[in-house]
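Hi Y.,

Following your request, here is the sequence exactly as I used it, all 293 residues.
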Amino acid sequence: MTIFQALIGIRFMPDPDRLLTTLHRAVQAFRETPGRRGRFVELRDASDVLVGGDLHGNIENFRLLMQKADLAKNPRRHFVVQELVHGPFRYPAGGDKSHQLLDLVAALKCQYPGRVHVLLGNHELAQWKSQWIAKAEQDLNDVFRAGVAAAYAPRDDEVYAAYHALFAIVPLALRTRNRVFLSHSLPSALRMASFDFGALQKEENDDADLAPGGSVHALVWGRDTSPPNVRAFLEKVDADLLITGHIPCERGFEAPNDRQIILDAMQTPACYCLFPAERAITHEELIRCVAEL
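Below is the corresponding structure, written out as tokens. Let me know if you'd prefer a different format.
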């Protein structure tokens, strides 16, 4: 299924058989991504990288990001998206439509298997491991599950299991040859001493990694952007600069310190960063690479 077929399918609800084939192929493509070691990927062949901020089911912003990436005309460009689920878009009965973005990204991964990457966020982790997460007194996990049922019943259990298979395999972090590190967030100062970069390089994470206090949980939930904490993290992951999401940004991005930028693509303004990946780059230049959709 091409991404264009998937976009058409979203309007009319894709056939579950075809969707399941796409999701299973995407899982295999994530597993076979070049440079992958466990759930960490070294982007060895990238000339440049376009990374977007949190999307939370915003298909229109994803379409705009995909348009900016223009992967067909840029054969060594890599495209990175994050935080796909738990958005404001609803079915008439109240279920969350953000699963549709998973369908689209899976189709794009199948089309460009080596160059499309998804960073696991705290919302995917919460949905996958049934860790409570709420907004406006709604359990977001339950609302997401209701959306999958609204779209794909009576085969929604199979589709939901395929989404879990995706959450279990997508990268936790990426690093470019010029030492830019991409992850959804970073551990707080409280968790930094116990954070184990090796946990990101495991083929399968155990429950301790994924539960509160574990290295994966700490990676996607932390909000401490203080300069000492960011420097300590970059030392642990052997990188110089950091691009994250997770924290809402009124203007679509923030540069909270001299090593990091934060991207947000959930609403408007929405921002992305298109940066060179083969030569040295400064924090100031990285900021100049940020643009609004």
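Residues 75 and 150 are 38 Å apart (CA to CA).

Thanks again,
Q.
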